[in-house]
Design brief:
The chain has about 70 residues and is an alpha/beta fold. It contains two helices and three strands, in the order E-H-E-H-E. The chain has a domain of about 40 residues. This is Short-chain dehydrogenase.
Amino acid sequence: MTHSQRFEGYGVLVTGAARGIGAATARRFAEEGARVLVTDVDPRAAERTAANLRGQGLTAEAFTWVPRHDRPA
């Protein structure tokens, strides 16, 4: 299936993108030309999703941020 490149030149941040609907959303944006930043609280799963997209010739990177609860207010 060919996809349009309607998101070419766009960067897209997809949260919860390590699996399920989030991963499918990241894949679809990437298929349509977006540079995708895959984020999730599970860093290994986020990297697996990004690596899978890159393996398909798509542009994706993983990023995980875990809040520090001990930060002063």
